């Protein structure tokens, strides 16, 4: 009976739904070295027939309520066509208020809104 339940559990777990995300990023961490003023990463749309409206912002907290004034994200809002990618640039514009003796952690929030099917 236990072998039967194990086999049934394995079949249910292996045959479960799979998720495929069409909008992805080429990196999960962005590191800005002290001697550089900007870092670039890519937003990638791997879906065939659907474009995305992508919004990007840099925040101090993971919940996204406090925007960081020291950096500029360009572009902040753009259309990402099917099977394409777009470079997103995070540029340091001011070091005022940032610690000089240790690292700072910020969160890049990238969200995509899919277009409606045609």
UniProtKB/TrEMBL annotation:
- Using the record's annotation, list all stretches that form the Pili assembly chaperone N-terminal domain: 23-117
Query: What do the Gene Ontology cellular component annotations say?
Result: outer membrane-bounded periplasmic space
UniProt-listed SUPFAM superfamilies: PapD-like
| Lineage: superkingdom | Bacteria
Q: Which GO terms describe its biological process?
A: cell wall organization
Q: Which Pfam families match?
A: PapD_N (PF00345)
Q: What is this protein called?
A: Molecular chaperone
Query: What organism does this protein naturally occur in?
Result: Serratia marcescens
Q: What is the lineage of its organism?
A: Bacteria, Pseudomonadati, Pseudomonadota, Gammaproteobacteria, Enterobacterales
